[in-house]
């Protein structure tokens, strides 16, 4: 029977599968609420869960070659590491539904809860001396370190349940949009595991490839994690001093200035085309403090670098009402950590609640 033979043929399996995904996508694209780019097949539709990676593919041969020649891994080590790696379909599904894509009124309540605020205030007291030492060394106010710690991992309680090696391979092998990024993360991850005596197959993390209490991705860990408790290891899994100092080091390296504003409210509408253009450009659209003052008819506090402020628009409600803030260089340092303005705003607002709440950190 010719048909079953054709179906089993490897070179035909993939196109048929792709066709099925396309047909499914076309069928669902007619829904009134679906934005146009949902017509493309999602990465998750093109794989089977648990499908092994193909280490004989050009993609993996190229990766192995780099790991051998530039980083000194042996072929035997690589085969041992990669031979049981599987594609995790769930990782791909979650990548296409990221929280940061939600409007702010849906996004922030997930992080600004009574519990995260209270827990942050309690930890501010508990780690008062440590936070003061970190602030002294890196020049970052404690409330912001606590807020990032709280949002990233609920202060260390949620470090991610996905096997990180499978996750990074899934994103490298089956998520074309970010392939080169995750190729780099995979290499960085193997290096950091070797440097820190960590078994690569034992680490868990998020579906985006972030791990530990800081939820660093591998390249950020290698560039910015620090050893603050002095044991010679950069331990973002178990050491609170290393966790808080690593967050502070990151913000300091991206231009945090102690005592400067993070953001300032500038109104519900924008008063000039320049501001609208800057808002549309996002985290790379800059205007000066004077431009904002003129357009909004308000006065803003000065700060180091206040000729490079961003315009952040936050969705207030389903009806389309907006709230705009000026993002100072300290706000931009938080967006270096996570490029989403919504993320940075949630960090800033949680930090304020932790700092100003009753029994909390007073400044
Ligand atoms: Ca350490």
Topology:
Blueprint: H1 2-8, H2 10-29, H3 58-69, H4 75-82, H5 89-95, H6 104-107, H7 114-126, H8 128-138, H9 142-153, E1 162-163, H10 164-174, H11 179-196, E2 204-205, H12 218-224, H13 240-253, E3 263-267, H14 273-281, E4 286-287, H15 289-296, E5 309-315, E6 322-327, H16 329-337, H17 341-356
Antiparallel strand pairs: 1-2, 3-6, 4-5, 5-6
Helix pairs in contact: 7-9, 7-17, 8-13, 9-13, 9-17, 10-11, 11-12, 13-16, 16-17
This protein binds calcium ion.
Please summarize what this structure is.
The chain is α+β, with helices and mostly antiparallel strands and 363 residues long. It has helices at 2-8, 10-29, 58-69, 75-82, 89-95, 104-107, 114-126, 128-138, 142-153, 164-174, 179-196, 218-224, 240-253, 273-281, 289-296, 329-337, 341-356; strands at 162-163, 204-205, 263-267, 286-287, 309-315, 322-327.
CATH topology of the largest domain: Helicase, Ruva Protein, domain 3
Total strands: 6
Which percent range fits the helix content? 40-55%
Instruction: Compute the number of helices.
Output: 17
Gross morphology: globular
Q: Any idea of the CATH class of the largest domain?
A: Mainly Alpha
The largest pleated sheet is described as: 4 strands, antiparallel
Taken as a percent bin, the fraction of beta residues is 5-15%
| Number of separate domains | 3
Radius of gyration: 23 Å
Bound molecules: calcium ion
The chain-level structural class is alpha+beta
Low-confidence stretches: 1-38, 358-363
């Amino acid at each position: 029977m010719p048909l079953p033979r054709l179906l089993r043929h490897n070179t035909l399996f993939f196109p048929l599968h792709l066709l099925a995904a396309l047909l499914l996508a076309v069928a669902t694209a007619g829904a009134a609420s679906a934005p146009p780019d949902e017509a493309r097949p999602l990465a998750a539709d093109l794989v089977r869960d648990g499908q092994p990676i193909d280490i004989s593919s050009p993609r993996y041969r190229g990766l192995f070659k780099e790991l051998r020649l530039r980083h000194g891994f042996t072929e035997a080590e690589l085969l041992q590491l990669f031979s049981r790696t599987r594609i995790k379909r769930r990782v791909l599904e979650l990548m296409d539904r990221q929280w940061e894509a939600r409007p702010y009124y849906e996004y922030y309540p997930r992080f600004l809860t009574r519990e995260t605020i209270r827990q942050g205030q309690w930890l501010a007291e508990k780690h008062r001396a440590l936070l003061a030492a970190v602030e002294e060394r890196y020049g970052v106010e404690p409330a912001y370190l606590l807020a990032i710690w709280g949002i990233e991992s609920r202060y260390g309680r949620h470090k991610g349940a996905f096997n990180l090696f499978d996750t990074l391979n899934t994103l490298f092998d089956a998520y074309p949009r970010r392939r080169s990024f995750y190729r780099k993360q995979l290499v960085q991850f193997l290096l950091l595991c070797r440097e820190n005596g960590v078994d690569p197959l034992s680490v868990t993390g998020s579906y985006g490839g972030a791990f530990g209490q800081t939820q660093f991705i591998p390249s950020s860990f290698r560039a910015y994690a620090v050893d603050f408790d002095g044991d010679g290891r950069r331990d973002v899994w178990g050491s609170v001093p290393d966790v808080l100092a690593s967050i502070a080091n990151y913000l300091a390296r991206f231009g945090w200035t102690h005592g400067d504003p993070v953001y300032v409210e500038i109104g519900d509408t924008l008063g000039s085309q320049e501001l609208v253009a800057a808002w549309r450009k996002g985290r790379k659209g800059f205007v000066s403090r004077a431009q904002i003052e003129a357009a909004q008819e308000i006065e803003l506090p000065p700060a180091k670098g206040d000729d490079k402020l961003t315009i952040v628009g936050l969705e207030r409600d389903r009806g389309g009402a907006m709230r705009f803030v000026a993002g100072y260089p300290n706000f931009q340092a938080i967006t270096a950590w996570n490029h989403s303005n919504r993320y940075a705003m949630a960090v800033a607002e949680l930090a304020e609640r932790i700092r100003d709440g009753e029994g909390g950190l007073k400044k």
